[in-house]
Amino acid sequence: MPHIQQLSSHVADLIAAGEVVERPASVVKELVENAIDAGASAIVVEIQRGGMGLIRVTDNGCGIAPGELPTAFLRHATSKLRSAEDLAKIGTLGFRGEALAAISAVSRVDVLTRRPEDTVGAAIHGEGGHMGPVREEGAPEGTTIRVADLFYNTPARLKFMKKDSAETAAVAGLMQHLALSHPDISFKFIKDGQEALHTPGDGKLESAVYAALGREFAKTLVPVDGRGGDIGVRGFVTAPVNGRGSRSMQVFFVNGRFIKSQLLTAALEEGYRNQLMKGRFPGCVLEVTLPVTAVDVNVHPAKTQVKFAREHDVFDAVFHTVMDALDARGGAVTKPVSQPQQVQNPRQDFFQSMDAKTYREQGNKPAAPAPKPAFAPQPAREEVRPAFSAQPVKQAEPVKPGWNTEWRSTAKVADSVQPIWPPRDTVKRTPTSALGQAPASVTAKPEPAPQAEKAAEPAPAPKPFVPAIPAVPAQQTAMELPGQETVMPREAPWRIAGEVLHTYIICEDDADTLWLIDKHAAHERINFDRLLAAKEPPMRQTLLQPIAVEPGREDAALLLENLELLEQFGFGCEDFGDGAILVREVPADLDAADTAATLEEFAQNLRSGRSLDEKREALLHTMACKAAIKGGWTSDPAELKVLVEKVQSGEVRYCPHGRPVVVKVTKYELEKLFKRA
User: Are 493 and 379 in contact (CB under 8 A)?
Assistant: First the structure.
């Protein structure tokens, strides 16, 4: 039977260090938070090899007294707490007194510091938790801490470190959050000798957002500012039309501390109800201020989670502030503006309206296109005419009450629903097919030829439409053999009645059953099965102009780590610097406009702690969804026929995410609704 014994101080320090120091970003976080608590107005962070080789943090704060330097590296030594009562009102970022002890236990540490009232500075060196003597050295005001050879004495931890690029991206993401949480401090971040971040420190949040998150993200933001009692909410949120594919750009602060909170996320997204498309998420930089006694920050070793004493009040404050800001801006629902119908073939109309001489005389300014004839011959083709057509229902804009602090919102965190966002474009987008071919419904109509030419030579018949969806093998007509009668193929036991809302196919069968088929879900399932069965990478298309995608520094690091996996899915990507990825090639089935959203979803799937096979399957789900026909798109009858054939045959029943593809209504159920049965 094993005996119980007390661990040595060295082993205990290593265990404690494992809880505090997870990766180089953890070291940077602890050191920078100490610099902020020291009252610094300028902080410089420099790393090499992702922080594994070198971490240097320099500030101009209050410094450390020479006689207190050895004490600062002891466990549970701090200047921020004095008694147990102070735990109920923590107003500083650091308070545990474990950071320096944990860092020194797994690295080589050098500290150089000087207080404003001292004429000479002090320095100390330590390795593996053993600190040397304090010595006098010249130093500027403030503190400089140098951490080298992280985890040099714990090789087991080195196995779990990621690539240098990933660790660098993690530190960069952390510096973004710290810079946003304290816009009054000038932050400078240097990686491998190159400056990656520099904020002005002018106290303006918009300046910090511009410097940390970039101009493209900053110009999509809407300012918000509200207060309910002693709870204040200020910052920026993205406009509804700029919804993102993941929640990676949702940044929350509570009293200057970066946190991750499901409560704040739910309150934010509740404010966007009915203003975002399904699968899109808002971005934000929101700061919540409340009394220090109303929030508990001592609930997680990483200090990234908090507990609120009044959760409903915090939820209401964020929810109403966001909703009122969007409402004051006019919301996302804009009144459609009538536009003239676009010409199907403007180039052909242009050359029919004028000759070259007229074009030169008008100063290279094309005249208005000639009016279309009252009648134009239509190509003969088989059409499936719907039994009825549904008109789009115009949704009334919800009446949003003004927020006051006396009433509570009836919305709860658990009752959050996925918001719905109406189409962005006032004119419906005419999509290309899944394989890049335009549907037959949008092919250019032939212009009427002159009568003389028409009499001389008949116009050639239009080519039949080839659907982008993999066609079902047609039933071959049996050859007539001697002594054998020709067997004609039997008609399908179902009939397409039409399509409603450009999303659902209506089909009836011989068993008096009505089928409602979701064409997007059906096509998504077909794509997923095809990609899953494919033994080779999909075909690629090279973009004429590469696309720069900015998913965020952490997501960009994940994608760069998995470039080989992206290659297998048909993406040709490379590092573009500053958290951006340059995309040169995309899968042939994917619309180039969906590149950014697809990569954001890829990063979200890679961030999950699942196995490699599960991640591959999740990526296949994303690829199948992005390449499928979208709800609201106009589809060719031939495409609808192929989809119905797949569903009727039993090959397609559920989409890759588990949603049903078809809903059946029997004749008895339908007659029961109309009181006929």
Answer: no
For the chain, domains (ranges, CATH) are: 9-198 (3.30.565.10), 220-330+401-415 (3.30.230.10), 495-664 (3.30.1370.100)
User: Can you tell me the distance from the alpha carbon of 448 to that of 375, in angstroms, rounded to the nearest whole number?
Assistant: 9
Q: Whole-structure pTM over 0.90, yes or no? A: no
DSSP string, 103-119: HHHTSEEEEEEE-TT-S
Q: Which two tokens stand for residue 15?
A: 């265990």
Question: What is the model's pLDDT at position 290?
Answer: 92
Cβ–Cβ under 8 Å, residues 63 and 141: yes
Quick one: which of 138, 414, 404, 89 has its CA closest to 270?
Answer: 414
Q: Which amino acid is at 407?
A: W
Residue type, 299: V
Strands 284-289, 295-296: pairing is unpaired
pLDDT, residue 399, reads: 44
Residue 231 CB: number of other CB atoms within 10 A? 21
Per-residue model confidence as pLDDT tens digits over 371-424: 444 444 444 444 444 443 444 444 444 444 444 433 333 333 334 334 433 443
Nearest residue to 242 (alpha-carbon basis) of 281, 207, 209, 278: 281
Q: How many residues does the chain have?
A: 677
Question: Which CA distances in Å does 47 have to 3, 28, 57?
Answer: 44, 9, 9
Percent of the chain with pLDDT over 70: 70
Q: Are 503 and 629 in contact (CB under 8 A)?
A: no
Give the whole-angstrom CA distance, residue 235 versus residue 212: 14
- What b/e string do you get for 595-632 counting C-beta neighbours within 10 Å, with b at 16 or more? bbbbbbbbbbbbeeeeeeeebbebbbbbbbbbbbbbee
What backbone phi and psi angles, to 5 degrees, belong to 118? -95, 150
